[in-house]
Amino acid sequence: MKKKLLIAGDSFTADWTKKYKDIFGWVNMLEKDFEVTNIAEAGVSEYKIYKQLEFIDVSKFDYIIVSHTSAYRIPIEEHPIHKGDLLHNNCDIIYSDVKEHLENPVMKIADDFYGSIFYPDYFIFINKLIFNEIYKICPNAIHITFFNSFYDKWVYKFENIFLKYKGNVNHLNKKGNELMYDKINKILKTK
C-alpha cells in the first residue's frame, strides 16, 4: 500500500493537469510512489497557503510537502485577470503579473501601490509570521521554496533549479521536473 502524501503551496507544487491534461510535473511523478492529495494552487500568497492547511487533518498523511511563495504576493479575494481560470482561480497579486495587465483598472491600482507605497520589510515580516503559523500546523512537513531570499531555517531551497531549468510545467522544463522529483524523493526517504 502506498504511503499518503499531502502537497500544499503555490504553482511550483500545483497540479497543472487541472488545466493542461497532457502536462506532467514533478508533483505528478510522485503519484507513482505515493497516494497524493494535492491542494496547492497556482499564484497563491503565503496567507492562502496557510488557509489551504488550516482545516486539514495533517495526521492522516505520512508525508507533507509545503511549497512557500514570495513574500511580495498580496492576497486578494478575487483576481481581476485569473478569475475562473482552472489553474489560477484563487491567484493573488504579484508585481510581475501586474506589469503584464496594466489595461485592467485593478491591476493599474496594484501597479500604483507597488510603485508608490509598497513597503517590502512589512511584507517580509508578515510572511514570516504566516510561515510560523504554517510550521505550527505541520512542523514535520518538508518545507520547500523557489524564493530563497524570503526563507532561512527549516526550508529546502530550490530557486537555483528554477533559474537554471525554467519551463512550462510547475515553472520548470522536463529536466527541472525530473531533478525536483529525484530531490524530493531523496528527502522523503530520509524522513
Brief digest:
This protein has 191 residues and is α/β, with parallel strands linked by helices.
Overview of the molecule:
With 191 residues, the chain is α/β, with parallel strands linked by helices. Helix content is 36%, strand content 15%. The chain has 7 helices and 6 strands; from the N terminus they run E-H-E-H-E-H-H-H-E-E-H-E-H. The chain has a 5-stranded parallel sheet. The radius of gyration is 16 Å and the shape is globular.
Low-confidence stretches: none
Q: What oligomeric state is this?
A: single chain
Biggest sheet strand order reads 2-1-3-4-5
The biggest sheet amounts to: 5 strands, parallel
How many separate helices? 7
What descriptive keywords fit this protein?
191 residues, globular, 7 helices, alpha/beta, five-stranded parallel beta sheet
Topology diagram in text:
Layout: E1 3-8, H1 26-29, E2 34-38, H2 46-53, E3 63-68, H3 95-98, H4 105-116, H5 120-137, E4 142-145, E5 155-157, H6 159-164, E6 166-169, H7 174-190
Parallel strand pairs: 1-2, 1-3, 3-4, 4-5
